[in-house]
Amino acid sequence: MKEGKGEIELIKEGKRLDGRGFEELRPIKIEVGVLKRADGSCYFELGGNKVIAAVYGPREMHPRHAQDAKMAVVRYRYNMAPFSVDDRKRPGPDRRSVEISKVSREALDPVVMREYYPKTSIDVYVEVLQSDAGTRTAGINAASVALADAGIPMKDLVSSVAVGKIDGEVVLDLDAMEDNNGEADMPVAMVARTNTITLLQMDGRFEKEEFERGLKLAMSACHKIYELQRAALIDRYSESVGEGEE
Ligand code: UDP
Description:
Elements: E1 11-12, E2 15-16, E3 28-32, E4 40-46, E5 49-60, E6 73-80, H1 95-108, E7 120-130, H2 135-149, E8 159-166, E9 169-172, H3 176-181, E10 184-191, E11 196-200, E12 203-204, H4 208-245
Parallel strand pairs: 6-7
Antiparallel strand pairs: 1-2, 3-4, 4-5, 5-7, 8-9, 8-10, 10-11, 10-12
Helix pairs in contact: 1-2, 2-4
Uridine-5'-diphosphate binds next to helix 2 and helix 3.
């Protein structure tokens, strides 16, 4: 659990170390359809985080005993590249990536219309190329757009961001310096249109009032991210329509 080391001053003159206000997101960049061999893909940048999501399927599921006769099975693999962090990360799965894969899949599951594709799998691969805290949220945002790009029927997109507490203040979208030295970190994912929360985790501690304020802040930021995800998809597909017309 986070204790808030308090050794590094994270807020100076009302601003965070990177100059952001308390309720400010890091810059976001979204590109749809970046991988030729995937059915759907998305590159997502959130400040210093760079992630790629690739979606394959629906396709016949192997091993067969893992198939669901009534619906598709969504599999999600979150992977952090060895070069994505300051200290080289040992390649391959570890407890952290298994946990993140599980909660991310559960964050997306409610919107995927799995009943259309019995006995198949929909495989989502998230590769973190560069990390600066909030990689699971960046991965979920990317995966959601990649699923849409793959043409998988979905009720809606899922949008995700973290809130946290640094130097006693509730702030949006922690970077790694803030995450490592702050008091709390709470990633949230939601279906923005219906305000349905699909992921909520917490490392550290919030007072009840801080939790409520933090959740509101995260939800409002998810609405902004949702608009950017939508815009990126519209941009991509209006481009292809345009190309076809020429
Ligand atoms: N991190 C790292 N090495 C690791 C795992 C994490 O340097 O093996 C860093 C990385 O920048 C990551 C941050 O710690 O983004 C926060 O990790 P956390 O487990 O809270 O997940 P995230 O915030 O990335 O979803």
